[in-house]
Design goal:
Length: 142
Amino acid sequence: MQRTFKSKIGILTHILLLITIILLFYSMWIKSIVFLVIMLIINVLFVPSFIHTEYIFNNNMLYIKSGYLPVIKIKLDTISEIISHPKKNSLFTTNPTKRYALSSDQIILYCKDNRRIAISPYDKEGFIRETIKCNPDIKISE
């Protein structure tokens, strides 16, 4: 059975989205073609990630989708630990390319192959319950 969790969107993500849209309109106002093209590219590439980030459970797999980025596939039996309330300094030790969180209210998935993936499901408790239901050996840390 498939279950989908949407990403929580933080205030900083909303501010960044608003700034990029304002700059897009500003570039049209000042009639700068180069600036307009740059802002269009930024908006086309990043806005879908802001809007369409989700975490999908299906057949003992976790699929992480974020805009145009490739879908990340994680076997649930490879997840060894979940940190539900990471310390601020642990957020910066996570590889930024493995960050699929749109909010600072994140959880970190530790996999047995030493991957760390930061995500921010809107329903953190439901996400953790679903993960444990599929793999009861996962260690949960605060």
